[in-house]
Amino acid sequence: MPEEAHNDSVEAPGEACGVFAAYSPNQRVSHLIYFGLFALQHRGQESAGIATSDGETVTVYKDLGLVAQVFDEPALAGLDGHLGIGHTRYSTTGSNSWANAQPAHRQVGNTSVALGHNGNLTNTAELAGMLGISSATTDSDLMAEGLSRAIDDERSDARGLEMAITKVAPTWKGAFSVVIMDQGRIVGLRDPQGFRPLCLGSIPGGGWALSSESAALDLVGARFVREVAPGEMVVIDANGIRSHYPFPSTQPGLCLFEFVYFARPDSRMYGMGIHAARRKMGQILSEEHPAEADVVVPVPESGIPAAQGFATASGIPYADGLVKNRYVGRTFIEPTQGLRDQGIRLKLNPIPENLSGRRVVLVDDSIVRGSTTRQLVAMLRQVGAVEVHLRVSSPPYRWPCFYGMDTSDRSTLIAAHLEVDEIREHLGADSLGYLSLEGLLEATGVADAGFCTACLSGDYPTDIPEISDKFQLERS
Ligand code: AMP
């Protein structure tokens, strides 16, 4: 596809993407990376891309769309080589252009470098200034640019990429779990807090894989070895695997929302299974906010484990009351007005016989803007639910995220403006209970491991970008 013209301004799109990389001396890796990305599709549905190398030439293929829409057999056949990286991208609307799809690629003399980024930098304006750039569209593009200039400086060194990353990475602030490659190696790098996950696996028959989530390793038959540590840089090439630590060490701060919503339930983080943690959230939620009701109904998919935990702990029977249209994803087809009026039903459809005449506990993992939840409550009442008791397995989402969630505009967060009872009224529920932050941390089983709780607590572990008036960041 032709590259589109760049915008004139530097945006800071919120991204919670998926990254995957593989180095396997005995096989072509394009299919492996494809299936790795396929397993990480939930982390980003706007674009997908893979770069591979046969040791001589780096080839990049990327496009807008889901992984299965972007790649077909001929595309994968064109991606030759035994090492490569892949990326699935999620971003705010407006920055969904081909140019912003990743991997980002630069040719510097004889070195061909590609980069895939999960997270969000907090110093994009400063970086753009340092680089004298006003036309880059994403923070990831700025990273690729900074890196390519550092490579230029180090071109004479055999380990040019490694040295260049060590030199440039300390200028990046905020959240970045990145996979980087040149013709001969792959590199995985996590910011000092480790906001976004990244783990290492071994490939049967030889080689290594890097993945945002452990579930993607399972899917391609790789064995989970360990998490890449916050602040660690892992380099994999013909000489094997080695680590560097380019940053001063600091308190780890994995995004707590990975446990709540982002990660697949079959992934593990900080050594803990995400599904079990979500069940435990539901259990603690039922202790903190019991309800008198006939059934516990989850909002699928992400509310299911917490609803199971709530039902088990409370003794209220669990029932499926909503069916998710699994393939709705993010579609490029704009619904016609008539279809748009169907609203939430495009995504979720009720099972009236499980809801009608019942007092329902509706369990979801989070309320961000409140628009989906409000429609859901109304839909449950339409099909005859006599009471709707909303239970949320995370605390009120009050603060914008600058580390990779699509919520940097505080004005859209319902809990930033309303108290819990006002939210209940706005959503039309009979009662509303949020899990406490202490309860949520307890449910992870690793409360002291180090989490970023900024969106729930307002405690940002790093400097954040200057906030414009519309975000109204004063603490209440
Ligand atoms: P709403 O009522 O519009 O705030 O939507 C709540 C739903 O959004 C819940 O089912 C959450 O699982 C889901 N959700 C939470 N965080 C995000 C996110 N970053 N992107 C998309 N959906 C999300």
CATH superfamily of the largest domain: Aminohydrolase, N-terminal nucleophile (Ntn) domain
Estimate nothing, just give the exact number of structural domains: 2
Number of helical stretches of at least 4 residues? 16
Which architecture of the largest domain does the CATH hierarchy give at level 2? Answer: 4-Layer Sandwich
Broad shape: elongated
Give me the secondary-structure category. Answer: alpha+beta
Q: Could you explain how this protein is built, in words?
A:
The chain folds into two domains: 236 residues, Glutamine Phosphoribosylpyrophosphate, subunit 1, domain 1 (4-Layer Sandwich), CATH 3.60.20; 173 residues, 3-Layer(aba) Sandwich (Rossmann fold). 27% of the residues lie in helices and 22% in strands. The protein is built from 16 helices and 23 strands. Strands 3-2-4-1-10-9-11 form a seven-stranded antiparallel beta sheet. Strand 9 and strand 10 form a beta hairpin. The longest helix is centred in the N-terminal third of the chain and has 15 residues. It is elongated. The chain binds adenosine monophosphate (AMP). Adenosine monophosphate binds next to helix 12. The site of adenosine monophosphate has 15 residues, from helix 12.
